[in-house]
Design goal:
CATH superfamily of the largest domain: Glutaredoxin
Distance between the termini: 40 Å
CATH topology of the largest domain: Glutaredoxin
Structural class: alpha+beta
Helix content: 25-40%
CATH class of the largest domain: Alpha Beta
Strand content: 5-15%
């Protein structure tokens, strides 16, 4: 998968970014405009993006955990009719995320065959990785945002319905922010730091932090249903994509194998409780996730062989 340089796609993919000690360094998202109720500027970027039903579109992939965040927010907030979606094919090639001519993995909006065409069309001078999710404005044919955390937050705040779910309640914002920071650094990105480590020391450090934090979260959930407050919040939403991929992908492909999700007495029923919330199971494709993480990779899986297991069974709690 290549990169964009000054709005032009380059097929050559750079090696994963690492520091001098072999630790994986994730690139930051840079397209960060916001949708607001009145169209004014948000915390970053330009204004002009008003919350209007039918105006915006998401480009996502079933296998990507960051895209999964956006899909979860769309479902939990009841925005399926307000925001349309295109799903990339389960595989990537030299063109990066790609789309079929027709069917489930086609793009009904722009008819593009590769995601980099969205970037070149909606961010003419963009330099960086071609990632999902992408939030697209149909009216101005512009990329609004490609940072999943921003997309979740703006959907919650700009499209919130009176009396509807509040993923970022004022009374628990400090607690949610604390969980978000911890979960991102040590769990969401932690599994990637383990999987993309280029030295034994970097891997040992990353995998230890992943399981230290999973154990702490498991203990926290021993006496409560949710991470912050008494309802499902943004903190739970941001943890779930990693849990959904843990046993089918990270345990094996990223060598995060000290325990499986099913071995945690509180995290396992917690994950299943989220999975069986209305609409959530429809955002999870275990088969595609496994195929994606075991796709051919010189560093992780040079032969591209996808394992038969594990058998996936997430029964109700």
């Amino acid at each position: 998968m290549g990169v964009m340089i000054d709005g032009r796609y380059q097929v050559e993919e750079p090696a994963p970014r690492t520091d001098a000690a072999g630790r994986y360094q994730r690139a930051r998202s840079t397209l960060r405009h916001w949708i607001t109720t009145g169209g004014g500027p948000g915390p970053t970027g330009d204004g002009g993006f008003v919350a209007e039903s039918g105006r915006y579109h998401l480009f996502v992939s079933w296998s990507c955990p960051w895209a999964h965040r956006a899909l979860l927010a769309r479902v939990v907030l009841g925005l399926e009719d307000a925001i349309t979606v295109s799903f990339a094919e389960p595989r990537r090639d030299e063109q990066g995320w790609i789309y079929s001519k027709s069917g489930e993995f086609s793009d009904p909006l722009l008819g593009i065959r590769a995601l980099h065409q969205v970037y070149s069309r909606g961010a003419a001078a963009y330099t960086g990785r071609v990632t999902v999710p992408v939030l697209w404005d149909k009216k101005t044919e512009t990329i609004v945002n490609n940072e999943s955390a921003d997309i979740v937050r703006m959907l919650c705040q700009a499209f919130a319905a009176p009396g509807g779910p509040d993923l970022y309640p004022a009374a628990h914002r400090d607690e949610i922010d604390g969980w978000n920071e911890r979960i991102y650094a040590n769990v969401n990105n932690g599994v990637y730091r383990a999987g993309f480590a280029r030295t034994q020391e970097a891997y040992d450090e990353a995998v230890a932090q992943v399981f230290e934090n999973l154990e702490a979260i498991d203990a926290h959930l021993a006496a409560r249903d949710w991470l912050a407050g008494e309802t499902f919040t943004e903190a739970d939403l941001r943890l779930f994509p990693t849990l959904a991929r843990f046993d089918v992908a990270y345990h094996y492909a990223f060598k995060c194998n000290l325990k499986r999700l099913t071995d945690f007495p509180n995290l396992w029923p917690y994950a299943r409780r989220i999975y069986h919330m209305p609409g959530i199971a429809g955002t999870v494709r275990f088969d595609i996730c496994k195929r994606g993480y075991f796709s051919k990779s010189e560093l992780r899986n040079p032969l591209g062989i996808v394992p038969a297991g594990p058998v996936v069974d997430w029964p109700p709690v």
